[in-house]
């Protein structure tokens, strides 16, 4: 059984991460301040520094938090090619319920194209990993004779990721009117010989 002080500290840490996710999504990493995060959490700046000694440490915690949720969904269940592609579409459906997370990702990914941004290496590696995972799902679908002939898994993976990123921007700009899930499922289905 954990001590009450530790549970309270973990709860405050989670609140800080959630507020930072919201602020980073609203104004970007560069536009956000630790003082603003502390104010939203109703703690002092010093109290926030107790949990996250630097803005970079807070950013890293925010990114890790987001990835934990996504990885849990993407790795659930079986690992056939079709299951992997279904889970990618399921992630798109989940993102349609998490506007703050989508805003955060879009803003930080754009900011992090600069090599000087503290999340640059993270996003370079994240995209590398995303392409590898998605390409792997397409390869498994091909081995199961579910993929259309002539479709290159590496190209298909990059196209799918680009489609997802572009749809997120459209979805944010039209206040959720873009049906990201339906479009992604239709795109994947058009590449398959059997029903997704």
Assign the structural class, choosing from mainly alpha, mainly beta, alpha/beta, alpha+beta, or little secondary structure.
mainly alpha
List the domain count as a whole number: 2
Tally of helical segments: 9
CATH superfamily of the largest domain: Tetracycline Repressor, domain 2
Low-confidence stretches: none
Report the CATH C-level class of the largest domain.
Mainly Alpha
CATH topology of the largest domain: Tetracycline Repressor, domain 2
Rough outline: elongated
Let me know the average pLDDT: 89
- Please indicate the percent range of residues in DSSP E strands (runs of 2 or more): under 5%
Summarize the structure.
The chain is mainly alpha-helical and 196 residues long.
